[in-house]
Amino acid sequence: MLDPRKLHLLRELARRGTISAVAEAVTFTPSAVSQQLSALEKEAGVPLLERTGRTVTLTPAGRLLVEHSHAVLEQLERAAAALAATRGGPTGPLRIGAFPTAARVLLPPALTGLTGAHPGLEPMVAEIDPADVSAALGAGALDVALIHEYDFVPPVTDASIETEPLFSEAMYLTNRPSIPDARTDAWITERPGTLCHSMAIRACQAAGFEPRVRHHIDDFDTVLAFAAAGQGVALVPRLAATAPPPGVTLTRLLLSRRTLAAFRKGYGEHPAVRAAITAFHEAITHLRSLSISASQ
After folding, report:
1. Boundaries of each HTH lysR-type domain copy (predicted)?
2. What is the domain range of residue 117?
């Protein structure tokens, strides 16, 4: 019989690439992870790993087992969710990940509604880039997360993660009527490796040029302050542009950012996760009342 806990470690190895990275994610020692994976190989009866010095890669059998592990672990998540539902209302810690603008605008009203309806819940929020969410959910560091997807950028969630759409928002360009008009400007983007940065670069490439990036800034309030100071142009989502500072004009573009709730497959019906997603949906009515000063 294959041990699901060991299957989880094998899937984490496929996702993270090294035993040390798996150990850090699941708070084991590297030696303990290695021992568990060796035990899984014995249970499977075939080699799952190829070891070359300090490098470990999955064999074809290992990759096949990872593919099957998604369905196995999903069913176990469903079982855990069903058992939790028999215990009554949701209680205890609920670990929520969110990107900064959602944490600032969406989560305060959502958490007010969530804890009001379920006082036994203890929400704990951590800011995280959507690109890191699959790994955090897979390792059990988060129970549910708010992520975003952009035009021009493929989704970053993997096969172990399920999502539920929440809302879509327009993107805006600062101080220029269109992206092609910003061809010769300096640009303000987020850090390389973030979805926001990839979106800005690819939107410019779709307009026929490579942007000249001067500043890398993740906080959209700071981005807008830099734009107001004449330090460059930027793309900002509606949530970040409800009150632009003096000196910043906003032009709505035919680009969008979509916000979704993400959770491990099979875990979406867990009472605490479902309560959080319900609170997110209810908080959307607050967001719909927001207005933006923008040229059309």
Report:
1. 2-59
2. 93-162+258-287
